[in-house]
Amino acid sequence: MGMEKYEAYVRRAKSSLTYDPGWSRDNHTGGWRAERPVVDHDRCTNCLICWLYCPDESIDHDTIEINYTYCKGCGLCAAECPVDAISMEREAG
Amino acid sequence: MVMKPKQVTCTEHLNPGNLACAACTEVLGFRHALKVLGPNTIAINGTGCLAVVMQMGVPKVPHFHVLFENAPAVISGIDDALKAMGKRDEVNLLVVAGDGGTADIGLSALSGAIERNQDFIYICFDNESYMNTGGQRSGTTPFGARTSTTPVGRAVQGEDRLPELRKDLMAIIAAHNIPYAASTSIAYPLDFMERVRKASTVRGPSYIHCHSPCPTGWSIESSRTVEVARLAVETGAVVLYEIENGERRLTQKIKKKRKPIREYLAPQGRFRHLLDDPEAIEHLQQVVDRGFAATLASMS
Amino acid sequence: MKTEFWNGNMAAARAAQRARVQSIAAYPITPQTHTVEYLAKFVADGELHARLTKVESEHSALSACVGASSVGARTFTASCSQGIALMSEVLFFAAGLRLPIVMAVSNRTLSVPVNIWSDHQDTLVNRDTGWIQLYAASVQEVYDLVFTAFKIAENADVLLPVIVAYDGFILSHASEPIVPISQEEADAFMPPPGQGTWPILDPDNPQQFGEVLFPEWYPDFEYKKHQALVGSLGIAAQVWREFGAITGRTLTPIDTWFCEDAELLFVGIGSMMQTTRAAVLGLRARGAKVGLVNIRSFRPFPEQELRQALAGAERVVVLDRDIGYGTTGMVYPDVLRALYALPQRPIALNMIIGTGGKEITPQTIERCFELGLEASGERTVLWPDARGPEEGIPYDESIQLPPAPQPGGCALNGGAG
Questions:
Q1: Using one digit for the tens of pLDDT, what is the confidence trace for C220-277?
Q2: Chains meeting B at 3+ CB pairs closer than 8 A?
Q3: Mean pLDDT, residues B69-94
Q4: Under an 8 A CB cutoff, do C199 and A15 touch?
C-alpha cells in the first residue's frame, strides 16, 4: 500500500515532515469490496446522484463508470439511485 | 443556489485512496466542502477520524492535522499572520473537526476564535461520539444510544444523562452572535454546499454543523447511511436551518406529518436495545418533539 | 544607541519588536504579563507592525503561534509556570513541526502551594520537548538572547523553537541599564521576517502537515530532530559572535569565572549565578579557591565546554533552583554526564536552593560553599536553605499555632480579644 514511501519522505525532510498530495493513490481500496456496484446504463438517466453521494470519488462524472480500483462497495450509490439503475453483486471469491 | 447534482463542479480536491470505512460521511462532507471552496483553501483538521483517513496526501489543498482541541487557535494564528503579512485575501481558511473536538475538548478554543472575530469557516462533522478511538460517548451523544462507554447493561442501558442536557452546538455557537451558522446534514449535499458557500462569503467566523451518521459506530448497514441521515431530518431529530446575522430560517421544508422517531432509530444498532421497549420509544419521541418545537419556535 | 532603563519584560518585548515580529499570541500570567501589555501598546501606537492574537488560554497561545509560523510569519509568545504546563502538549507539537517560534519565559514555580515567585521548575520540566532553552543572568542578556533567538531558530539547519528564560520578578520586574541595538543594525543583522525557508501551508505548493509516521521510520525522524538541536549549539555560538561584532557583547554557551585555579566550582543557570559571582568575589577575598560556570544554553547542553571548564576542580557544586522529585535537581544529571568522561572525577554535589522564589543571597552561596567543602559526597542532594534537612535551617520551635477555634464559638470573629 505504498507504506515504504514514508522512508523517502523522512529522508527528504530537512525540518518538518510533510507529505505530497496524491500518494494515497497507492491505496487500492477496491480490495475491501464484498459487493460490487454494477450500473445498468440503459436505465441510468445520468442524474449524477450516485456520483454526488460517492464518498470515494469512484464514479466517473462523465461516463458513470465505476472505478473498481478504489470503490469500497459501500452501496450508497445503489441505495440512492432514484431509478434502481445500480445493483450490488457479490464479489467472486 | 445549485439545484441539481449536474450543476455541481466535477473538479475534485481529494485524491482517491483514502482509508476511511466504506460510506464514511465525513469524507463525503469534506469532499463537498472543498468543491465549494476550491484550491485556494488551507484546511486545518482537528484530530479525529477525518485527520487520520486523510493521511498519505489525500487532500490536494494544504492540509494540517493539528491537535485534538486546538484547530480554532491554529487557524486564528494563520488568520492573523496572513493579515500581518498582507496575504489574507488570497485564501479560504477552513477547519474541519468532529463533535468530540468541537463540543468537548475544543469548545473553549472555538469560542475564543469566534469571539475574536477571526475569519474562518468551521465545519463540525457530528457523528455523536468519539469514533476515532472506537466510539466512546461525547457531549452530543443522544439519549439512549449505546456507545463503548455507555454500554447496555443490566443497570443502565446506553447514554442516560438527561436528554435536555445534550450539548446543542448550534445554540452555543449562536449565543456568540456569530455572523453565520447553519445546521446541515450529509443527506442534503446541495443544501450543505450552499451553506458552505454562504459561509465563505462572510468576513469573520462562520460555523457549519453537519449531521454525519457513522455506519461503523452506529451499526448501520453502510448502504443505508445517507438514508439514516435523511430520516433524522424527516423525523425532526435534526432540523436544518441557518442563522444569518441573527435571522433564523429553516433551510429544509418539513412535512406537516413528521415520520415517527422509530423509523430513524430502527436501522441503527446503537438503539437496538430500545426498539422492544415502547415506553422508551415514546420517551424519545417526546424528547424529539420538544426539541423540534423549540427549534421551530426560535425561527425568525 | 543610548542606554535605556528597562525591566526584563520590557527588554523581551523591545527585542521582539527590533526583530520585527509579525505575529504574537499570548495569554497573561504573572510575572510575564507586562511583556504582552508592552507589545500590545507597541502595536496600538503603530510602532510594531504585527498582529497580536489575544487568545483565551496558553494552550491556544502556542497553538496560534504554530498557525502563524506555519504560514511563514516571524512569531513570538511569552508565558511561564502554569501557562507553560498548560502548553506542554503544544511544546512537543511545535518542536516536532520544526517551527522557529521564540518564547520569553519569566520563570515561576508551579502550584500548589500557590506561589508566583521564581524558580526554574516550569521550563526545566519541559527540557525534553525539543525546544532550545537559553537562560539569561541579567536584563541585558534577556534583550540580547530574545533578539538573537530569532536568528538561531530560523537558521535553515536549526528550525527549532527557542525558550529564553529569565527569573520572574528578579529579572522580569527589576530595571537595569540596557543598551539596545539600533533598528538599522538590527535589520543588517537579521534576515527580513516572513522570508523563512521552512515548509509552509501554501495553496501554490500544497503539502500535508502533522500526519502520522509509523514505528519503522519514527526513529529516523527523532534522530534528525535531536541532531538539529545538538547542532544548534555551534550555530548559536556563531550568531552570538556576529552579534558581538556589532554590539561588543558576545554571548557564549557557558561563562567561566575563576575556573583556572579553583578547587570548588559552582555550576548553575539563571540570575542566581550573578549572585554567585558576588559571593565568589567575597570568598576569593578571604583566600578561598572558588569559581563558577554559568550555563546559558541548557538545551542544547554544552557538554564539551563544561567538561573542559570543570576539569581541574576537586569539588563541583551544582546549584539547582528546581527539584526533580524523587531524584535530583534537573541541571545536576547533565553536569554529571559532562564529568563522567574525566579521568579524575571531582566530588559532585547538588544543592537545591531558592525554590518558589526564596531569596538567594551571597550568604546562601557561602553556606553552599561551606557545605560543599565539608560534604563527603555520600549524600549528593542537599537543601541548604530549607527548614527540615540536617544541613538546612532549624525550625523555630517557639512559633506555635494558635488554639483551634471551638465549633460554634466566636473565635473566628476575633473572640479572643
A1: 999 999 999 999 999 999 999 999 999 999 999 999 999 999 999 999 999 999 999 9
A2: A, C
A3: 96
A4: yes
How far is it, in rounded angstroms, from Cα C127 to Cα A11?
27
Pairing mode of beta strands C297-299, C132-135 = antiparallel
> Per the domain annotation, does C290 fall within a domain?
yes
Query: For residue C105, what is its C-alpha cell?
Result: 519565559
Q: How many domains does chain C have?
A: 2
pLDDT of residue C417: 42
Question: Distance from B296 to chain A by nearest Cα, in Å?
Answer: 28
Residue B86 confidence (pLDDT): 95
Instruction: Read off φ and ψ for residue C209, nearest 5 degrees.
Output: -115, 150
CATH of the domain at C300: 3.40.50.920
Task: Compute the distance between CA of residue B122 and CA of residue B178 in angstroms, rounded to an integer.
Answer: 12
pLDDT tens string A14-51? 999 999 999 999 999 999 999 999 999 999 999 999 99
In whole angstroms, what is the distance from residue B92 CA to residue C243 CA? 40
Beta-carbon separation of A16 and C159 below 8 A: yes
Interface contact B80-C65, CB threshold 8 A? no
DSSP annotation string for C289-323: -EEEEEESEEES--HHHHHHHHTT-SEEEEEESS-
> Could you give the CA distance from residue C394 to residue C385 in angstroms, rounded to a whole number?
10
Q: How, if at all, do strands C132-135 and A86-90 pair?
A: unpaired
The H helix count followed by the E strand count for chain C is 12, 16
Helix (H, G, I), strand (E, B) or coil at C286: coil
Residues across chain A: 93
- Cell readout for C377 is 559526597
* Residue carrying C-alpha cell 439514516: B228
Q: Which of C70, C220, C227, C229 to mutate to test binding with chain A, by most A CBs within 10 Å of its CB?
A: C220
pTM of the model: 0.96
C222 and C286 inside one domain: no
- Using a 10 angstrom Cβ sphere, with 0-12 exposed, 13-18 middle and 19 or more buried, the burial of residue C69 is buried
**Do residues C80 and C105 make contact, with C-beta atoms less than 8 angstroms apart?**
yes
DSSP β-ladder status, C162-167 and C132-135: parallel
Q: Which CATH number is B10-147+159-297 given?
A: 3.40.50.970
Same domain, residue pair C14 and C136: yes
For residue C206, being part of any structural domain is answered with no
Which three three-digit cell numbers place residue B260? 415517527
Kindly list the residues from chain B whose CB atom is less than 8 angstroms away from the CB atom of residue C69.
Answer: 77, 81
B115 in reach of chain C (CB within 8 A): yes
Q: How confident is the model at residue C413 (pLDDT cuts 50, 70, 90)?
A: low
**Residue A61 C-alpha from the chain's centroid:** 13
Residues C242, C267 share a domain: no
Tell which of B223, B225, B227, B231 to mutate to test the A interface (max A CBs under 10 Å).
B223
φ/ψ (deg, to 5) at C9? -65, -40
Q: Which amino acid is at B172?
A: I
Neighbours of A11 (CB within 10 A): 10
Question: Taking CB atoms and an 8 Å cutoff, what residues of chain B touch C202?
Answer: 62
Per residue in C340-353, pLDDT tens?
A: 999 999 999 999 99
Question: What domains appear along chain A, each with residue ranges and CATH number?
Answer: 28-90 (3.30.70.20)
